[in-house]
Automatic annotation (TrEMBL):
Lineage: Bacteria, Pseudomonadati, Myxococcota, Polyangia, Nannocystales
Boundaries of every FAD-binding domain copy: 7-345
Species assigned in the record: Enhygromyxa salina
InterPro entries named in the record: FAD-bd, FAD/NAD-bd_sf, Flavin-dep_Halogenase_NPB
Coiled-coil region: none
Taxonomy, superkingdom: Bacteria
Gene3D superfamilies given in the database record: 3.30.9.100, FAD/NAD(P)-binding domain
Protein name: Dehydrogenase flavoprotein LodB
GO molecular function: FAD binding
């Protein structure tokens, strides 16, 4: 293993959580930090709305002013038909932090990586973690594929942060397993709005519960909106929601989403249907001090929330900050820092699970629906 490039901390995954962790470490004076990102920040990414409170996290990361200068679209809150046929409104009018944002995710993630670079972090794009090779007292050897041709490359890490998203690539390779609360499948289509004036009418995210799950409509950059249905894997398959015909048939049953699109003169972007998994889980363990060297997981790699919460990016940034504090303290010899971090992730997941059960329990309109019964709504609890 001699002669390999060695980094004190290697962050696998350069999404919001990984970049926040790397930036947080650099701000705490930790040197020799490398981010290994499989993509190149060119592809569209799912997940865009962030709450007003995210402002405080940007401030702690030292990037608030720069973020505000990026001019992401404001998000003024949400309206939802949930537990009732009519729309209820939950806007940010009285939030002391002001509005939230509908992020241009591709631009945001690339911007976060650039901020980490500015702070002294090395960021490799098109570099994919593929395997954990041998480990000794100098660290763990990681097998990567780098560049368009996927050239095999090996590096050594003194500490690993797994920020690879919901597949937790490194942690699961080390034997960690998700404790899963639910599995949803989300099928998203995209629409274009006729002009900027009409786009301004889409500053509230819209949620609509239906018998087989729930829909959301959220604004995207460049006069686009994302329209998505979340349901169980079985219902997704039975209703053929991965096909335009099945998806449009389901959309036609909505009471609010379709009329909103029609009223705005929105036109579908053809061939745009994308399907993704949306599990709810917490990883066991989130930190492994028994393996050498130690690793921890952040963001969706550590715990994944239902997209109904709109908390994924906030959680990723918050984990990034907390993990940076924990890893910096651990490297200075603090024996408790990593377990404090892990406890924080578990406590937050417990709170999330309670809130989620309450939220799904509010929907009582479809007592025969397996989707709602399985999630605590309808007539029976899970
Ligand atoms: C349908 C849907 C809608 C959502 N809507 C919202 C929303 O409105 N608001 C919100 O806050 N959240 C939302 N989310 C959740 C949000 O997208 C995630 O929580 C957030 O992206 C998590 O950030 P992360 O950095 O942990 O992971 P990710 O954003 O998934 O980043 C992981 C990174 O790791 C990289 N990677 C993966 N494997 C490897 C590897 N082997 N080697 C190197 N790099 C690797 C990936 O390329 C990626 O860049 C939604 C999720 C879904 C499914």
């Amino acid at each position: 293993m001699s002669g390999l490039p060695r980094y004190d901390v290697v962050v696998l995954g350069g999404g919001p959580a990984g970049c926040a962790a790397a930036l947080g470490l650099a701000r705490r004076g930790v040197e020799g930090v490398l981010v290994v990102e499989a993509g190149g920040y060119e592809d569209e990414r799912i997940g865009e709305s962030i709450p007003p409170d995210t402002r405080a996290l940007f401030d702690q990361l030292g990037v608030l002013e720069g973020f505000l200068g990026e001019d992401h679209e404001p998000c003024l809150g949400s309206c939802s038909s949930w537990g009732a046929d009519e729309l209820g409104y939950n806007d940010f009018l009285f939030n002391p932090n002001g509005n939230g944002w509908h992020l241009d995710r591709r631009r945001f993630d690339a911007w976060m990586a650039a901020r980490a670079r500015d702070a002294g972090v090395e960021v490799w794009t098109r570099a994919k973690f593929v395997d954990r090779l041998g480990a000794d007292e100098r660290g763990v050897e990681l097998g990567l594929q780098v560049g368009d041709q996927g050239a095999p490359t090996r590096i050594r890490a003194g500490f690993v942060i797994d920020a690879t998203g919901q597949r937790s690539r490194y942690a699961r390779r080390c034997g960690a397993q998700p404790r899963t609360l639910d599995r949803l499948v989300v099928s998203s289509g995209f629409f274009e709005l006729p002009d900027a004036e009409i786009s301004r009418l889409f500053r509230l995210t819209m949620l609509e519960a239906v018998e087989e799950g729930w829909w959301y409509l959220a604004r995207l950059p460049r006069r686009r909106v994302a329209v998505a249905i979340a349901t169980s894997p079985a219902l997704h398959k039975a209703s053929r929601l991965d096909r335009a015909q099945g998806w449009l048939a389901a959309l036609a049953t909505t009471r609010h989403i379709l009329p909103k699109l029609l009223e705005a003169g929105a036109s579908p972007v053809t061939g745009s249907l994308t399907v993704c998994a949306a599990p709810s889980f917490v990883l066991e363990p989130v930190v492994d001090t028994s393996s050498s060297p130690t690793w921890l997981a952040v963001g969706d790699a550590a715990s994944c929330f239902d997209p109904i919460s709109s908390q994924g990016i906030y959680k990723g940034l918050s984990d990034g900050l907390a993990s940076a504090q924990a890893v910096a303290a651990h490297l200075r010899g603090d024996a408790e820092a990593l377990s404090t971090y892990a406890r924080g992730v578990h406590e937050r997941f417990t709170g999330y699970a309670q809130q989620r059960a309450y939220f799904y329990g509010v929907e009582q309109r479809w007592t025969d629906s397996t989707f709602w019964r399985e999630r605590g709504g309808g007539s029976e609890r899970m």
